[in-house]
Design goal:
The complex is a heterotrimer of chains A (203), B (261) and C (386). Chain A is mainly α and 203 residues long. Chain A is built from seven helices and no strands. The longest helix of chain A has 39 residues. The two termini of chain A are 15 Å apart. Chain B contains ten helices and six strands; from the N terminus they run H-H-H-E-H-E-H-E-H-E-H-E-H-E-H-H. Chain B has a six-stranded parallel sheet, with helices on both faces. In chain B, strand 1, helix 4 and strand 2 form a beta-alpha-beta unit. Chain C has 386 residues and is an alpha/beta fold. Chain C has a six-stranded parallel sheet, with helices on both faces. The two termini of chain C are 97 Å apart. The chains are: A mainly alpha (203), B alpha/beta (261), C alpha/beta (386).
């Protein structure tokens, strides 16, 4: 019963959502819409679980006196302060200030660091150890050249080459990967829909 | 032949999405047949995927060395488009967790989304209980950093520094932050494995990880990690892939001959 | 009186088992046990009768448990050889054809650290190049035909018509997307096209507010409520977009800034469904956002959908562009530079094109250096091998 009930509920909800997609029946559509809304609401409440986990982990580090307790204290203070401002004054000047002067610069900084990592990864990837590495090197440099804003000034055929690269090999490869991922998605979903795999019930 | 095209147009414009229903039915029959066969013990030949082979040897090494394995579950949510690859990340986490629980070893799991955290907590609790050490489950082995992907990356890196790990497995929904995690935590003494279904992120992570799974190989995780229930779905994927290839080839030939398009 | 079965002495006061007595043979032991039993049976009713310094049941307890001595024997030849071999294995070292490995002292790898630091410094210099060179390559930029066509299609929008703009990117990609968003907003504002702004990501609204605030500063006549409005964040991803597709007022009860009903704002009062906008323009940093718009909105209501995305995501959306589900697809800061030219807008991304040139030169340099280093290492290994 302990396993059978969640499996039965999951299978029933999954089949309802599936039937909702295929039939224009208003009652089933209404149930399907409620189920989809329920997922969004559950995800929002799950965020509370994440916040509790975060607070618990970092509070413990402070209490135990770990080396990184200073960072944990900063995290907890920042979390509680932003939460308080966001709940007390949503869409206000204060929350906009937090977004403009804290969140935005931090996010932009972290994304900017990727440029350094990409170049250092390129340093390793461009070593000509085998034929695949040679193809990678040539393709990478050619694609970057065609992506330059002034590539047409270097050669009028570079924009044409860029369009061809995007339209033919890239599209073909992307479609292949999307098809394969779609097949995997369907079988994984079928496994859960038909209760062959039920990770939510402890297996 | 043109009437076939008209027939297809009429079919696809029907109020019920007939094409989607047909695709689903094409999947269901072989899925049931292969799953029954797999559960009855029939073996399916699998080509070697280096990532999963290394993972299997790493869990044994973790038992011997006492150094934990980190499993990064990514920023996907259970309940959105990233659900299938997130579920595969949980499958890998389940495999590593069971080995860790059986040998009473620690494990580190990081999640960038709260629904994944909840699912991973259930997986780890179950693994500890089935191994006979339910009291060994602590909430501290699973950390939530998110829901922003870069916040998850920063938190995962901070989690690495606290303890020496044998390996890091990044499997789930990753974006550019996957490169950041993989590149920043590179260590000759720590193996890094992983994969995601996004081609963009895969290209970035592939340059920094020791072994990568590409595209739909992520969905083969269960089959390679000794779950018979996943073998059937893997066989179904291959069968339907052959069908799709044949349909594409037929379509290309018919279009070239002028019957379609 | 009890006779000691080992020495046949009568037990007297202070009697003790003779230490010189030979150990009993198995036959003697059996008879001793029997004697012990006999002696036990001669006792009277009281268990203490006849107790003289020696417990009467001592033989019955101790005699059977005295160990029999081992019979010594000579080892066989095989056993002697095995014992000798064992002794040699334990005491002698194993001869090795190779010399014992000398423990290597791991020295700090200085050169790789310096190399990495130098590489990062070069990346920083490449990014800062536009500040030193002042946009030398900007004059070389020529916008592609597709971008010129799109700019012209926006130019052709009549004044007062409405366009829905969805800011579906995060601040992480603000550096790449903000120039695109600004160029778009400037062109729409210059043509007095009404902009209805929303987002399917919580952070997108903050970015939208930054962009429209800049436009409002540059063009005071472009006023909130009359020329543009911010609807807010649309939650629920697919479900939210499906609701939006059915009716705008079902998805948004009021606007985000003034909290007024949509019917009260001049710019949104006639906005019942998405068919009432000329086109939907999605600014996104991931392909999933654009796919959701295609699957939940464009495929169901056949609206005109344009996508402005990051350069990394653009290749993933080309199949949708080729199939006609996207009217237009433009990517990244490169597209922004070309679009600024095509729309005669203020050059923001154009001034940064020198950075791309510097980065390209750096990548070629990286490819050269890494392979030269690899060849040098290979030559060194060959020489050491000899």
């Amino acid at each position: 019963m302990r396993k059978a009930l969640p499996i039965a509920v999951a299978v029933l909800c999954g089949l309802l959502a599936l039937v909702d997609y295929f039939t224009p029946n208003p009652q089933i559509n209404a149930i399907g819409a409620r189920l989809v809304e329920g997922v969004a609401i559950l995800a929002a409440f799950a965020l509370w679980l994440g916040i509790v986990n975060l607070l618990g982990v970092h509070a413990r580090r402070i209490v135990v006196g770990e080396r990184s307790r200073g960072f944990s204290a900063v995290l907890i203070i920042a979390l509680l302060a932003t939460l308080a401002v966001g709940v007390a004054a949503p869409a206000s000047v204060e929350i906009a200030w937090v977004f403009d002067y804290v969140y935005y610069p931090l996010q932009a900084t972290m994304a900017a660091l990727l440029a350094f990592f990409v170049v250092s990864a390129a340093y390793r990837a461009f070593k000509l150890r085998n034929i695949q590495a040679l193809i990678l090197l040539v393709t990478g440099l050619v694609v970057f050249l065609t992506q330059l804003p002034f590539s047409s000034a270097i050669s009028p055929s570079l924009p044409v080459l860029r369009d061809w690269i995007l339209s033919v090999p890239v599209t073909a490869g992307t479609r292949g990967i999307i098809l394969g991922v779609a097949l995997g998605t369907i079988t994984t979903s079928l496994r859960i829909l038909l209760a062959v795999d039920h990770p939510y019930a402890g297996e | 032949m043109q009437s076939f095209g008209h027939f297809m147009d009429a079919l696809t414009s029907a109020s019920v999405d007939v094409a989607a229903l047909a695709i689903l039915l094409i999947f269901i029959l072989p899925f049931i047949v292969f799953t029954v066969r797999a559960k009855s013990g029939r073996q399916f030949p699998l080509r070697p995927i280096r990532t999963y082979e290394r993972l299997q040897s790493l869990v044994s090494q973790a038992t011997e060395s006492g150094r934990p394995i980190h499993v990064g579950l990514g920023s996907g949510q259970v309940g959105d488009v990233a659900t299938p690859e997130t579920v595969m990340g949980l499958t890998v986490f389940d495999f590593v967790a069971r080995h860790a629980a059986a040998s009473n070893q620690p494990i580190l799991g990081t999640a960038g989304e709260a629904t994944v955290l909840a699912a991973a907590q259930g997986v780890l609790q179950n693994a500890r209980r089935e191994a006979g050490f339910p009291e060994r489950y602590t909430g501290r082995e699973l950390n939530f950093y998110g829901p922003d992907p870069f916040a998850y990356a920063a938190g995962s890196l901070a989690a690495f520094e606290r303890r020496e790990h044998l390996a890091s497995v990044l499997i789930g929904r990753f974006g550019a932050e996957g490169l950041w995690i993989a590149e920043s935590s590179r260590d000759p003494e720590m193996t890094q494995l992983g994969g995601t279904s996004s081609p963009h992120a895969m290209a970035l992570m592939g340059t920094a990880l020791d072994e990568t799974v590409i595209g739909e190989e992520i969905y083969a995780a269960g089959a390679y990690l000794h779950r018979p229930s996943h073998l059937g779905s893997l066989a179904t994927q291959d069968v339907v892939r052959v069908v799709v290839i044949l349909v594409i080839l037929v379509g290309v030939v018919m279009t070239l001959l002028g019957y379609w398009g | 009186m009890i006779v000691c079965p080992a020495c046949n002495h009568h037990n007297q006061e202070g009697a003790e088992v003779s230490s010189s007595a030979p150990p009993p043979t198995p036959i003697a032991r059996e008879s001793a046990i029997a004697t012990g039993r006999e002696n036990l049976s001669t006792f009277g009713a009281s268990p203490l009768d006849g107790l003289d310094n020696l417990l009467p049941i001592e033989p019955a307890i101790s005699l059977p448990h005295r160990p029999t001595p081992l019979v010594s024997r000579q080892p066989s030849e095989d056993e002697e050889r095995a014992a000798e071999l064992f002794r040699r294995i334990v005491t002698e070292g194993v001869p090795s054809p190779q010399p014992a490995p000398v423990p290597m002292i791991v020295q700090a790898k200085v050169w790789p650290r310096i190399g990495r630091a130098a590489l990062y410094l070069l990346v920083l210099l490449a990014a800062l190049t536009p500040f030193f060179t002042g946009g030398q390559t900007a004059s070389w930029v020529r916008p592609r035909d597709s971008i010129v066509a799109w700019a012209q299609s926006l130019d052709a929008l009549p004044a007062g018509s409405a366009v829905l703009v969805s800011f579906d990117y995060t601040p992480a990609y603000g550096g790449e997307m903000n120039p695109l968003a600004l160029a778009l907003a400037r062109q729409l504002a210059a043509k007095s096209v009404h902009m209805v702004v929303m987002s399917t990501k919580p952070e997108g609204i903050g970015l939208a507010e930054q962009i429209v605030a800049l436009i409002a500063q540059e063009m005071p006549a472009y006023r909130y409520g009359e020329s543009y409005a911010i609807l807010g964040y649309l939650s629920g991803q697919e479900a939210g977009l499906r609701t939006l597709n059915e009716s705008v007022s079902s998805a948004f009860r009021s606007d985000h800034v003034q909290r007024r009903a949509l019917e009260e704002l001049p710019v949104t009062k006639d906005l019942a469904t998405l068919q009432d906008v000329r086109c939907v323009i999605v600014l996104a940093d991931d392909n999933d956002s654009v796919r959701r718009w295609i699957e939940q909105v464009q495929s169901r209501s056949n609206i005109v959908l344009d996508a402005l995305v990051t350069a990394g995501v653009e290749p993933l959306l080309v199949p949708y562009y080729r199939s006609g589900q996207l009217r237009h697809l433009m990517g990244g800061a490169v597209g922004a530079a070309e679009y600024e030219l095509a729309s005669h807008g203020r050059p923001l991304a154009l001034r940064l094109t020198d950075g791309y040139a510097a980065l390209f030169v750096l990548l070629v340099l990286v490819a050269l250096v890494t392979n030269v280093a690899e060849v040098a290492a290979w030559i060194r290994r060959r020489r050491q091998g000899r």
